[in-house]
């Protein structure tokens, strides 16, 4: 389904008069994805993504992408991404009552990466953009991977993989950040079995006013063993971490090179095991202080 850009005469009139044009595109089947990146208003409506296929919206520019209804995915043991968005000046949101259901219970086998192949859920490579108001359920593995992004704000996201507590889910991270800068994640709610957020590499990152339950808390790292191994200027504040194995931890890879500095950790509630740990790939250090 291509952009419905109206009559040619009207379009020419709008261009000549300097009026901006907002084209609309509705995706109800995977075939409708073609041409969507040329439009500025994209609605993903009650879509079923076939097994082994990614919903990929690449080359987005000055666009609003809205999820509505229920989005589902076919089952296949593979290691791709169920969704990937890439672009500049993009807004991603959802209508009231929508649900993006990953169907992760079909992949959960109690072994995580040591078991059968599992796709990551949603990778974003977005600049000067915002993601807000999404409702996500039962991700096979990592929920939202922020990769090579800048000036991105993520807010009011609910990731609920709590069923995995008794269905064998592992590695269901809420947010992972790689090689990104100026990223803020705030007012989100994550119920999972692994890191609420894991900062692998990046600079000028903020994680604030979030609720994390059931997993491993907030992690800086693991740092080391990747192409980029620098984490700088990270602010973590005013988060609630409950029913989790850790509060906040810094993880490094044994015998690898990396750098983690200017971490500011403020005003948290953490309930279960450990408040602040440093993990250096060999042993854990309870009570380690943040730099």
UniProtKB/TrEMBL annotation:
Catalytic activity: (1,4-alpha-D-galacturonosyl)n+m + H2O = (1,4-alpha-D-galacturonosyl)n + (1,4-alpha-D-galacturonosyl)m
Extent of the signal sequence: 1-22
PROSITE patterns, alphabetized: POLYGALACTURONASE
EC supergroup of this enzyme: hydrolase
Cellular-component GO terms for this entry: extracellular region
Active site: 216
Enzyme Commission number: 3.2.1.15
Biological process terms in GO annotation: cell wall organization; pectin catabolic process
Key words of the record: Cell wall biogenesis/degradation, Disulfide bond, Glycosidase, Hydrolase, Repeat, Signal
Molecular functions per Gene Ontology: polygalacturonase activity
One family name in Pfam for this protein: Glyco_hydro_28
SMART domains to which the protein is assigned, alphabetical: PbH1 (SM00710)
Family under the similarity heading: Belongs to the glycosyl hydrolase 28 family.
Name of the protein: endo-polygalacturonase
Organism of this sequence: Lygus hesperus (Western plant bug)
